[in-house]
Amino acid sequence: MYKTSIFSYTLNTNVLQPKMVVARLKNPSPRIGHCTKVPRNSNMEKLQHGYLFPEIERHEHMHLQKYPHANIIDLGIGDTTEPLPTMVTSSMVDFVLGLSTSKGYKGYGPEQGEQALRKAIADVYYKDLGIKPTEVFVSDGAQCDITRLQLLMGPNLKIAVQDPSFPAYIDSSVIIGQAGDFVDKVGKYKNIEYMKCGPQTNFFPDLHKASRPELIFFCSPNNPTGHAATRKQLEQLVDFAKVNGSIIIFDSAYSAYITDDSPKSIFEIPGAREVAIEVSSFSKFAGFTGVRLGWTVVPEELLYSNGFPVVHDFNRIMCTCFNGASNIAQAGGLACLSPEGFRAVKSLINYYMENASILVNALSSLGLTVYGGKNAPYVWVHFPGSKSWNVFAEILEKTHIITVPGSGFGPGGEEYIRVSAFGQRDSIIEASERLKYLLYQEEN
Amino acid sequence: MYKTSIFSYTLNTNVLQPKMVVARLKNPSPRIGHCTKVPRNSNMEKLQHGYLFPEIERHEHMHLQKYPHANIIDLGIGDTTEPLPTMVTSSMVDFVLGLSTSKGYKGYGPEQGEQALRKAIADVYYKDLGIKPTEVFVSDGAQCDITRLQLLMGPNLKIAVQDPSFPAYIDSSVIIGQAGDFVDKVGKYKNIEYMKCGPQTNFFPDLHKASRPELIFFCSPNNPTGHAATRKQLEQLVDFAKVNGSIIIFDSAYSAYITDDSPKSIFEIPGAREVAIEVSSFSKFAGFTGVRLGWTVVPEELLYSNGFPVVHDFNRIMCTCFNGASNIAQAGGLACLSPEGFRAVKSLINYYMENASILVNALSSLGLTVYGGKNAPYVWVHFPGSKSWNVFAEILEKTHIITVPGSGFGPGGEEYIRVSAFGQRDSIIEASERLKYLLYQEEN
User: Which parts pass through the membrane (chains A, B) (predicted)?
Assistant: First the structure.
């Protein structure tokens, strides 16, 4: 069996630890010269760490300095690797070629997205859920929409997040001014409610313990745990929001990876239109991480306490702070939602989910407790008693594999690492072999 | 000669006036159903008008209902109309085709933009100005960067804008919470300093009258007046910022249209690196209004009052609130900065500037006082004693031409309209003829 003790070794001092990175960022080389009289934004000052993924990149960079010939396998950032279906790229090529003709040239489009794409998202992605095209706002991606939703909502709200969760919810909350001070001792911001979502509660918060947050960021299938909330769990969540007057910001960026009957949209739950906004994306659904395309659904029935429809203000945010997604990306998105395109992107998703199975099997065979990988392209691995940055560092040092330390997703991620199933098949197989070999070495 | 009196006619009551639009937006149909307990963001409540351009679109829509067969010529929103150079679209096509291959597929790129593009912007666009690639942040457009800069700076700063100016500076300031209440009587937000830039002061603010703003939004060539600030004016601006400890946010989105020796970048002015950020865009430079690509330069020497470099926080904003511009758009942008691409986009700019000449000549021949059109694709026309929304409405009613009422750019734009030189040549000529014919009718 796997000996977790190997992960409690003393860290190689050549490996830059997060605290050192922070220290360097907080104390840049002193400058001699003119200072403006503009004070640094106190919200920016409150941000505690470098954003997780750039920080992991920094570790990778240092690893390569130590081992210049290392064949690194990146199972860290969840970045798609497989070529786009040709029918999707053909549509974009046709559109781009048109831009060099009088007839095909297009300038500014509607800030909310092309009508045809809004309609396709409503009709195809949200089939039978009664979403109107005017409730769909096309964007350059879910992460960007999260910040725009924070701008919409403003600094004076109490937010709750799943713990662990995707860092952008908390970081954008700090930037907008909702978070309050960071409390080192507990690793949390004072004004943010961290709703623990561990295996003890089937990765769902104990809502009896929750206060009355005004905004609830909820990601399902969850990044990083890979858990897709069940219908019953989401019904509880919607009930909770309704009773407490909260707004749920539901991130369904990975919903296309759901293989069982868990809901793919919060709008499958009766009553959700009165309490929820949904953020989603073509990034993982269709491999558009670099092409950039996403959307947000704001139902007409969602009202502020004074009865004013949220959708009116969000429309204003999109028209003022955004200027439409790239029309080329939108042409590609529309192709993904055609019957042929939909089948093609689905086969990409199946490919990544086969990767997930391979990783789940390899990690399980080591005796590790493994979650996720069934309804999401992330595998969430438990290392009881170990610090997740130490596990991350040891795996990198000994196998040249990049993962993500669970604590990067909040204190609830400590003792875990996230392993991404995005990758080419041979890399995934090679990574599985290296992990097994590491075990073999440790055992002998 | 032209009789300005025609513009003081009583408005047709079928034309929806801005106040009516606002009233409709502020009092949406009452809703019956669940209200959340989330209060509407008070910053959003302070926004006074629908965003200018969507509001003009609404007018256009109503005009078409009244005259279903009207051949409308749109000289309103400054939207590019000419096909992109084939060498630019070829580069994008190659990139898109690559996305369907294992070798050419790309996922997430750096949030700050592809290294090659950052370098090309620094080396080609800012030739000899000493801008480093690491100071260039590629984005999806200047308007989006303006909001990100407001997020960076936070709600507690005093801002100043040119009056008239592009509405996004003020609207984003309201959304972030800097603006204070709107004072109806003067048509201004209480905490924003409106620096009058009219012909009396050669479209430059009287800085002796200015207080000590922390942020100065300054657009040159100016949208809407078309005035490119002279070197001497910009030297005064940099001096003012240095003495007062202000940060200038310099919007150079139209700099490629400058035909005389006015500076194309604030960084041509000695000392600007310690006091200025520059926002710019491929939208008007290369016809990328729909493709979406822009950039912001934050020099290393720009420091907050505590000595902390602004560039570090902006980098954090880009990594947290943005996820990189579309990699397809970036491939196109890189092509625009090749020697061949640069020549090709320059010829597009010349085309639009010939349009501007035609419009300037036509409007001048009517005896109107006309500004702009020399260093910018905007013509700024004075109608002394008239309300600009009335002028807008009469021109639309009688010639089916869309312009922009100057007051939409701030109280300093009253009595003016902005005429855009973006358009196909035959439309521009037709518009000029219609305007001359309108005069002819009025005279006879």
Answer: none
SS3 call for A315: helix
Q: Do B245 and A155 touch (CB under 8 A)?
A: no
Which residue do the tokens 């036509």 mark? B362
Mark the ranges of chain A whose per-residue pLDDT is less than 70.
1-32, 49-51, 443-444
Last residue of a domain, one of A318, A340, A362: A340
- Judge: B41–A152 Cβ closer than 8 Å, yes or no: yes
pLDDT digits (tens, 9 = 90+) for B348-376: 999 999 999 999 999 999 999 999 999 99
Q: Answer yes or no: do A361 and A320 share one domain.
A: no
- Optimal mutation site among B26, B44, B149, B269, interface A, most CBs of chain A within 10 A: B44
Question: Are B34 and A323 inside 8 Å of each other by CB?
Answer: no
Residue span of the structural domain in which B95 resides: 86-340
State whether residue A326 is helix, strand or coil: coil
Distance from CA of A396 to the nearest CA of B (A): 21
Q: Is residue A34 part of a domain?
A: no
Co-location of A331 and A272 in the same domain: yes
Whether residue B434 sits in one domain with residue B422: yes
pLDDT digits (tens, 9 = 90+) for B33-62: 899 999 999 999 999 866 688 789 899 999
Confirm if A222 and A376 have CB atoms less than 8 A apart: yes
**Interval B73-96 mean pLDDT:** 97
Q: Which residue among A81, A244, A304 sits closest to B107, beta carbon to beta carbon? A: A81
| Subunit contact B143:A316, Cβ cutoff 8 A | no
What CATH number is attached to the domain comprising B311? 3.40.640.10
Chain A residue with CA closest to B303: the answer is A35
Cα angle A105, A109, A115; round to 5: 110
Tell me which of A21, A247, A292, A327 to substitute to probe the interface with B (most B C-beta atoms closer than 10 Å).
Answer: A292
On whether both B294 and B157 belong to a single domain, the answer is: yes
A217 and A324 co-located in one domain: yes
pLDDT digits (tens, 9 = 90+) for B162-209: 999 999 999 999 999 999 999 999 999 999 999 999 999 999 999 999
Q: Which of B30, B40, B326 sits opposite A328 (nearest CB)?
A: B326
The nearest CA of chain A is from the CA of B292 a distance in Å of 5
Cβ B100–A106 below 8 Å, yes or no?
no
Domain end point (choices A340, A374, A390): A340
Q: Quick check: B290 and A175 CB within 8 A?
A: no
> Do B107 and A322 lie within an 8 Å CB cutoff?
no
